Amino acid sequence: MQRLWYILIILVILITMPSVSFAQDDDGDYAAVVRSFFDKSESDTFRLGKMRSIADTCASVERLKEYSKVFLELSERDRQMRNMAHAYLFVGYATARSGDLNKGLEYCFTGLRYADSLDITDAKVLLQLNISTFLDGINDFEGSFDYLQKAEKTAEEAHDYSTLVDIYYNLAISYIQEELFETSIECFEKDIDAALRAGKANTTDQELCIQSLLVRNAFKLHDTLSIINLIDSVNGLMWRLKDVDEAGGVVNFCNTMLMCNLDAIDFNPVKKEEYLGYCRQYLDNMKIAIDTGDIKPVEETMYKPCKAMYLTARGDLRQARKMLAAGTETSGSPDYAQALFYYYKTVGDYKNADHFFWKLYRTSYKVHSLETAIHYEKSAVRDAYEKRMDELKSDAERRDHEFAESNEFSRIWRNGVLIVLGIVISIIIVVFINLKERSTINQKLRQSNDELLMANEELNVQREEILSQTDEIQQQSHVIAAQRDDLSTTNAHLLTSINIARDIQRAIVMSPEKLSETVGESFVYWKPLNIVSGDFYWAARIGEKAYTVVADCTGHGVPGALLSMYGISMLNDIVWRNPHATAAQILETLKSTFNKSFVIEDKNFLDGIDMAFIIIDRQNMRVNYSGAKRPLLAIDGGTIREFKPDKISIGNNIMRKNDTFTDHTFPVRKGEMLYAFSDGIADQFGSDDCMTKFGVKQLHTILAEASFLDLPTQRSIVESVVENWCTGAYLAGLADAEVPQLDDQLLVGIRI
Q1: CA–CA separation, 358 and 381 (whole Å)
Q2: Would you say the C-alpha torsion 54, 59, 63, 65 has a positive or negative sign?
Q3: Is there a contact between 612 and 631 (Cβ–Cβ < 8 Å)?
Q4: Parallel, antiparallel, or unpaired: how do β-strands 632-636 and 622-628 relate?
Q5: How is residue 374 annotated by DSSP?
Q6: Are 521 and 750 in contact (CB under 8 A)?
Q7: Which phi and psi angles does 322 have, rounded to 5°?
Q8: CA 513 to centroid of chain Cα atoms
Q9: Most confidently predicted of 120-134, 407-421, 677-691
Q10: Strand, coil or helix: what is 187?
């Protein structure tokens, strides 16, 4: 399910948790309370124990913040480093709870520096947990997950099993949001082990979570037989809900299993009534848990949309629509978007279903089932709707064309009238000015006649000088014309040579059709900056293995093309002579051969080649990859796995001459996509301001969304998006010119 309702349940429990008031809160003299136990003993252990008692029993977050600030001030005064780390922990927690998450993070990071320097384990793990929680609150999910993993490592080293129970549970929830169900199950199993070691005997919550994740993983894999068997088995465990300690755990399990039972109807329609009966029981258990656990906000964000989906599946569409209409006015829960998508799909309103499907897709942190999207796109009703929309679009375009022609005639007639009027007015003004000037000129001519006669002799002398200079200028003009003709001829010869070089390069680099014959179903997006390119791709098949290379040479144009020819020659020689070598071993051989080839007068050749080297073994469904500054993406069902390259080029790496390349070997599945690319697309400037880079993150997103489409369509999408990035601002009137291409661009996609 969506990330938001997990966070909401935790926040509700924290907010509604009962507190016991500290006996000295009422007087408000926080400094006196803290100084009293500082004066009583100089022991940092004694002082910390007293402060912990206040933190555990303080009824007000604001009071806890004031106590913590005084405790921090006095600890800094006495330089008690261990207490300072805990003091920043208390202040950061209270500050964040009072609403200032960024300031709370600042305090916690300061405390973590003290805890790290003195290796104060108990404070360190709590600070890391707080930082993870606060980063999640400001939507830095990657940073939150990173500090959660750090807290896990710290607690494991300290054998702090009580803290590990919470850490493993939160890690499991994070993996669920990414639909990594098998990894989440491993975390829940660790959570059970930690709970038992910490003395907690009741692990029913975690055990039920594992069973529900087995069902969700079967849905993800579209394993129909396992879905039918598992759904019946887990439905039979509903009686164990009475043993779950936390009301939130009951709500989570019931919510997940209700969704699974609704989805199971499509896989086994014969048992629809049985599945709906279980949905009714899960709804009843959710309502009891919400009421007894006093977590009323969850009723609005989770229970009501779940009930609306149940009513939709049962056929009570009027009641379901009424409940959804009331809920969307007060709730931004993604569960409502899920319920509205389910409702509109059921009633055949595919326009609204499409709207809520993509709203859910763009705002949720899980990868939605492509099976739903594909089924929706193939719907006959959807086809009829799109056909009608195309007809309406054609009518609108025809009317726009007729209106544009009418406007064009009016514009031409209006402009003609304005031009004629302007010409008439100009003639009148010119005639008037000429008459006035003629009178003035006649007077001046009479006055200047004598001056002209006197100047005539001087002009004759100057005329002779000008004639002499004219002869010299004509001679220089002939020389310049001859040089221009030579330059034009040279340029034509150069352009002819470059075009021939382009034909040679394209003859050496295999065609996209030949690439598909060699490595399997694939597509190529290749756009050189100049006539010839420094980016190239290469492929070969040896036995059952297909070898693919995507490379980016230093520079572009003729220098890059020359280097690409040498790279292809090296690959043809080295790969065929080493058919059993791994990708990293071949890159090492390429680097060594390159450095031996380019040494000129004891000065090392500084250019090189960045390269992604891929070996596909379809017989064993495994891929071996190694990268020289160029990564590899593997996308399956919208989920991205990025394999990082080594920061070494094929060339003379002065600062990394002792570094070696790394092999990455991983399994793949049928239908999975592999992508390798140069840096030309990611580094391209464009967008509305013409100054924003396209970026690797945006490229990853586009490839993930298009990965399930056919390969010609994927290539068209990449080409269209890159072109719009460069020309969109110009076409929209936001820029004076299109953004020029800055580098060669190359992207290769291969379907397993």
Answers
A1: 18
A2: positive
A3: yes
A4: unpaired
A5: H
A6: yes
A7: -60, -45
A8: 31
A9: 677-691
A10: helix
Q: Which residue intervals of 268-379 are DSSP H helices? A: 272-293, 297-298, 304-314, 317-327, 334-347, 350-363, 370-377
Residue 107: CB atoms within 10 Å:
26
For residue 399, the model assigns a pLDDT of 63
Determine the angle formed by the axes of helices 204-220 and 224-235, rounding to 10 degrees.
160
Crossing angle of helices 317-327 and 334-347, rounded to 10°: 150
Contacts of 656 (CB under 8 A, 6+ apart): 647, 648
Beta-bridged to residue 619, according to DSSP, are: none
Q: Which residues of 193-229 are buried (b: 16+ CB within 10 A; e: fewer)?
A: bbbeeeeeeebbbbbbbbbbbbbbbbbbeeeeeebee
Chain centroid to CA 263: how far? 29
Structural Rg of the chain based on CA atoms: 37
**Residue type at 293?**
G
Q: Please name the residue that has the structure tokens 């791994």.
A: 582
| Token pair 């073994």 in the structure block, residue | 617
Q: H or E segment at 395?
A: helix 380-508
Q: Exposure of 708 by Cβ count < 10 A (0-12 exposed, 13-18 middle, 19+ buried)?
A: middle
DSSP type of residue 303: I
Q: What's the full length of the chain, in residues?
A: 752
Residue 646 pLDDT more than 80?
yes
- 3-state SS assignment for residue 642: strand
Angle at CA 652, nearest 5°, toward 649 and 653? Answer: 60
In the numeric block, which tokens belong to residue 502?
Answer: 């382009």
Helix (H) or strand (E) holding 46: helix 44-57
pLDDT in tens, 260-286: 898 888 878 888 899 999 999 999 998
Chain-centroid distance of CA 197 in Å reads 40
For residues 111 and 516, give the distance between their C-alpha atoms in angstroms, rounded to a whole number.
Answer: 57
- pLDDT of 561 reads 85
CB 141 within 8 A of CB 171: no
Tokens 């001459």 correspond to 657
Q: Exposed, middle or buried, 141 (CB in 10 Å: 0-12/13-18/19+)?
A: middle
* DSSP notation for 453-511: HHHHHHHHHHHHHHHHHHHHHHHHHHHHHHHHHHHHHHHHHHHHHHHHHHHHHHHHSPP
454 residue type, one letter: M
How many whole angstroms separate alpha carbon 473 and alpha carbon 478?
9
Confidence at 4, pLDDT banded by 50, 70, 90: very low
Per residue in 226-269, pLDDT (tens digit) is: 888 888 888 888 888 888 888 888 888 898 888 889 888 887 88
CA atoms of 345 and 333, how far apart (whole Å): 19
Mean pLDDT, residues 409-424: 78
403 is written with which tokens? 């209106």
3-state secondary structure of 87: helix
With CA atoms as reference, report the closest residue to 181 among 140, 144, 212, 152: 212
- Side-chain-side CA neighbours of residue 699 (13 Å): 26
The SS3 of residue 608 is strand
Are the C-beta atoms of residues 498 and 532 closer than 8 Å to each other? Answer: yes
SS (H, E, C) 90-123: HHHHHHHHCCCHHHHHHHHHHHHHHHHHHCCHHH
CA 510 vs. chain centroid, Å, equals 32
Q: In this structure, which amino acid lies at residue 361?
A: Y
Mean pLDDT in the chain?
Answer: 80
Band (604; pLDDT cuts 50, 70, 90): low
Query: Can you give the pLDDT at residue 9?
Result: 39
At residue 114, the pLDDT reads 80
**pLDDT higher than 70, residue 225:** yes
